[in-house]
TrEMBL record, chain A:
<keyword id="KW-1133">Transmembrane helix</keyword>
<dbReference type="GO" id="GO:0000155">
    <property type="term" value="F:phosphorelay sensor kinase activity"/>
</dbReference>
<dbReference type="GO" id="GO:0005524">
    <property type="term" value="F:ATP binding"/>
</dbReference>
<dbReference type="Pfam" id="PF00672">
    <property type="entry name" value="HAMP"/>
</dbReference>
<dbReference type="InterPro" id="IPR036890">
    <property type="entry name" value="HATPase_C_sf"/>
</dbReference>
<keyword id="KW-0472">Membrane</keyword>
<keyword id="KW-0418">Kinase</keyword>
<keyword id="KW-0808">Transferase</keyword>
<keyword id="KW-0902">Two-component regulatory system</keyword>
TrEMBL record, chain B:
<keyword id="KW-0732">Signal</keyword>
<dbReference type="Pfam" id="PF10647">
    <property type="entry name" value="Gmad1"/>
</dbReference>
<dbReference type="Pfam" id="PF25976">
    <property type="entry name" value="LpqB_N"/>
</dbReference>
<dbReference type="InterPro" id="IPR015943">
    <property type="entry name" value="WD40/YVTN_repeat-like_dom_sf"/>
</dbReference>
<dbReference type="Pfam" id="PF10646">
    <property type="entry name" value="Germane"/>
</dbReference>
<dbReference type="InterPro" id="IPR059026">
    <property type="entry name" value="LpqB_N"/>
</dbReference>
<keyword id="KW-0449">Lipoprotein</keyword>
<protein>
    <submittedName>
        <fullName>Lipoprotein LpqB</fullName>
    </submittedName>
</protein>
<feature type="domain" description="GerMN">
    <location>
        <begin position="207"/>
        <end position="293"/>
    </location>
</feature>
Amino acid sequence: MRIPLKASTRRGLSVIRRLARAALGATQARWRRSIRVRVVTTTLVVSAIVVAVLGVFLMQQITNALLEAKERAALLQLDDGVGIAQGRLATGPSDPETLNDVVTTLARRSGTAGLYEVILIDDRDPGINGFSSNAIKPDSVPARLRLQVERAPASNPYRTYGRLSYDDGTSTAGLIVGAKVNAYQIYYLFPLTQERQSLVVVQRTLFGVGAALMLLLAAIASLVTRQVVIPVRLAAQSAERLAAGRLEERMKVRGEDDLARLATSFNDMAANLQEKIVQLEELSKVQRQFVSDVSHELRTPLTTIRIAADVLYEAREDFDPLTSRSAELLQSQLERFEGLLADLLEISRYDAGAATLDAESIDVRELVLRAVGDTEDLAERKGSKIVQQLPGEATMAEVDRRRVERILRNLLVNAVEHGEGKDIVVSVAADRDAVAIAVRDHGCGLRPGEAHMVFDRFWRADPARARTTGGTGLGLSISKEDARLHGGWLQAWGEPDQGCQFRLSLPRVAGAELRGSPLPLVPPEVELRRAPYAELKLEADA
Amino acid sequence: MRRGLALVTVVLCAVAGCASVPSGSQVIGGRITNHQQPIDDPYVRVIPVGPGRDWDPGKIITAFQAASGSFDGPNGDHKVAREYLACGGCWQPGISTVVYDRMEQTSVQIGGAHASVTVEVDQLGRIGSDGQYIADSHRFKATYQLRQDAQKQWRISWLPQELLLSRNDVNRAFRTLDLYFFSPDPQVKALVPNPVFIPMVNRTWLSQQLVKQLLGGPTTWLRGAGVRTDFPGGTQLRRLDISGGVATVDLSRQARSGDLRNMSIQLMWTLRQLREVDQLKLEIEGKPVQVPGVGGTVQSASVWSGYNPDGQGDAPRGWVRTADGRLARLDSSVPQVLLPKLRVSQPAISYDARQVAAVSKSGDTVTVTDMTTGATRVVLHAKLAGGRFCKPSWDSRGNVWAVESNSHGSRLWEITSGTTKIAVDGWTLAPYPVRALRISRDGTRAAAIVQMGQVSQVQLGRVDRAPTGGLQAEGFIAINSDLSAALDLTWRDADHLAVIGATDSNPSPLLYDVPVGGGTIQPMVGPGGDMKAVAAYPGAPLLVAQHVSSPQPLDNVCWLSDKYGEWKCYDRTSAPAYPG
């Protein structure tokens, strides 16, 4: 059952979750993006494992060595004590006083530091089981050791580890050694306090050294990675700049290592690229110049031909029908040729970067009306009607009148030519920053992917279709360049059997950046029609 | 390749260097352990065991005796020994302890499920419940009643309330420590030691018991001397913690009304006998108190060194009597005669070294001579028939004490301010001849050699004011049963005597160190001749007068050089004396 949470709690939880997710995401991102983070982390983990294993091993070795030394010393002490005790107890059974003296002597030999305690076991006297020194409790001698010592031949030492307990209730780990002397058992009990202190010191040192070592390794890894990563990063930056078109970009070559080789080859590559690109640019400049020159050179003879053709055309009624027809053909093709030449000149001006914007504040509606007026004749001939959807108030924008008129004319002519005699809709809309003009036809439309190709030079929707219609094949390209000169967009949309729509979006102030368009690229009725289909499809899936 | 080889060599050298211990270094001083551990001065305990199966009554009693020599259990209440008893609470051995030398079971009677065992011991003395030892040598008889329990095992059903311990048990299980109290005379700045026997249950218990006994006041015997304690009545020890040389004493709230300074002096002097204590921190109800005259709450032992019971300052020069009867000071290798006209016998020097009290050659008068003027006055004549004075004794107030005795009894005299003689009324040793009498430096105690029949015994008495206002010397107790023929004695320090005497086992006179608390006497190496008299002073070499018969008969005074531990003698001298 879910316990309903208070809204504030839920909000807090969600904040925490979001923060955690963000932190995780940031970490993951860092992990993915930075070689350095990966290398340093890996080094830390690996060195931690190595240091831990090494530390445990070392600790074990030191403990063993310490305890071994302690055992050896303990047995020597016991030997010593057993010798003394044997000397005193050699003459048969001894009275408690002698035993007391022996234990006192042995305990005194322990020194002021209290190196060990002595227990002497004598189980022949009633009431007394032996003597012990200081506060040690007799039960500190483990039963297993007593059993072993009792059974063993005299003077055979045994040792074991156990807990030494004292009268005041404290206890400590200790080493217990024992041997039999005549009928008595002598035990030396060594507290391992010193050894434990030493081990604690060693352990602390190991911890410190291990941590320092890990950090040192991580720092070294970070340093080394830095040395490798920085040149790689520089190379990446150089490559980015090169890709952005700064062909003069080169890497610094330092030393003779692998990175220097990378830099050298990068520089070679950049030099080659630059050379090729400059070559191509020059070639294209020469070509453009050639086209421009040809166009210019053709104009003079064409003018002459045009005058001659005009004379012939005006006198065509005097000719025989065949010659008259030829004169008419000559006239019409000459017009086409002129148009083509004008377009070629215009486009070569764009290519040369010589086109300039001559902006003035104009009511866009006026331009549309004029363009529609120019095209209405053609539309009537084709059986199309141009429907205008213009806003009620003036739609002012700083535009180049001539260029916008040309764009509109091109779009309208294009729409009439491909409109298949159906209606053509011209709509205008504006918002604070931009104005947009859309020209919609209901012709055969565009196949997927063709929406971009329509602006290519001499491109035709149907290659099989000959150049029967009037266009030069450069109109939309020039329009696109005109729109771009304004800082605007010219975009096309089309779907098979749905027709096309071209949308021109222009900033209201010349030179301003365009962020959006007041009109949709896809006509609203198409958008609306899509929705029910989507619903149906979903239901079918369910 | 070569670089790699060099690197490997360097690494190997470094590793080899790490694994070696130094074979040479600077000389470094200091202890490895930063403080003496309380473990030093080891003590030994017996490991008691409970009764075995099917032991007969005699064995049960023997085993019980052995087991009761152990102060085991949390408060030293003989936990194991109680397993021999049929009743848990019928034995309260705290009342007194009988110290014996030899034990024998004289009779074992078994009648059905009951038995009785009689034990006879040669008693040496008793330790009271307050820790005071009184030597009292006689035969002591104890009878134990036993009965069989449900498992047919003999258990003790009735027994004497005293704890019977052999001399060795006492040596092992008890420690003699001094409690320190202030002298009844406010003029005397020295502390009076009060030796007590405390069972060595364990180190912590010993120190706690020591402080508890100090809070409880002096032993019954010394209380009669009127020593002062500055702990208000009812003061309890809340906590005693000894660590790192600092003893923290936490007293109950009653201590607030006491003099912090005097309490600290008593505590410090009492606790500093324990090796592990160097400093004292006094707390009342858990809060550290600032004692006037001490910076900080931790007092070091040296702050109160002015209250040394042995006095302070440099040790004085010794004095001897030359062969022609003149008084000479031991300044250099030859004794220096200061007053050529003065003839003395048995001189006693005052503490300020200005006056000398002496006994005439015939022994029936006491004279006091002013050393600066040389004027001699006869201050005392013997009153008893055939009375002879023994060597007079000075106390630190400048009074002379002299005792005259004949074969039937003795009288004690006090000469105040060098002129007025007072017969001391409360002299409990009046029925006995007294061979020697020395007053302790603090003036509260008197050590005497008392002739009791054939035995000349060392006894310790109190010097105090009688309810009537007069001085009295009473409460004499024997402090040792071993010395049966004492010749001379002197105070070595506040709680030890040096005695020339003989024991039953060794009839030739030896020099003994005798603790006044009743602990074991220790023979000391003497100069080798026939010892007659002894003089001592804290911190000064022991002076012993002896008679040597070879190479020629000669009296000399010898002193123990503490540098080489050998005796050096001044020929043709006798009657050694230090101030006192």
